[in-house]
Amino acid sequence: MVNAEKAVVTGRRRVTIERYKMERDVGSVRKGPRFPKEADRIFRRTVRGMLPMKNTKGKEAYKRLRVYIGVPKDFKGKELEKLEKYQNKHVSNVITLYEVSKELGSKVVVDGN
């Protein structure tokens, strides 16, 4: 997936950001999982939670997952597949992963944002 920062999370902005901040804070208070700040790593962690990681099939699917912030040099000028049929333009109260990562303190600079 390219442009991970443009991925959308549904829900009210304030509640969504508070949920991600709470996840981040759990790992800093006690020894627990470190929660990522960058948009691509947030996306990878979310997908990981959806896969059956105890099975070989889930582990292999996770290894094949490629997530990038922006468009890498390898894909510049190539025709990329767009998932327009999966876009839902009727959903309100959305926030992008770029906005979430900025609220979490990420210092990643994305072209065009």
What is the topology?
Elements (H helix, E strand, L loop, with lengths): L7 E3 L2 H17 L9 H12 L5 H9 L29 E3 H8 L9
Antiparallel strand pairs: 1-2
Entry summary:
The protein has helices spanning 13-29, 39-50, 56-64, 97-104, and strands at residues 8-10, 94-96.
Measured as a percent range, the helix fraction is: 40-55%
Strand portion, in percent? 5-15%
CATH top-level class: Alpha Beta
Low-pLDDT residue spans: none
Overall geometry comes to: globular
Distance between the termini: 18 Å
Alpha-beta classification = mainly alpha
Structural write-up:
The chain has a two-stranded antiparallel ribbon with strand order 1-2. The protein has four helices and two strands; from the N terminus they run βαααβα. The protein is globular and about 45 Å long. It has helices spanning 13-29, 39-50, 56-64, 97-104; strands at residues 8-10, 94-96. The model has no long low-confidence stretch (mean pLDDT 85). The chain has a single domain (4-104), classed as Ribosomal Protein L13p, Chain: A. It starts with 7 loop residues before the first strand and ends in a 9-residue tail after the last helix. The protein is 41% helix and 5% strand. The protein is mainly α.
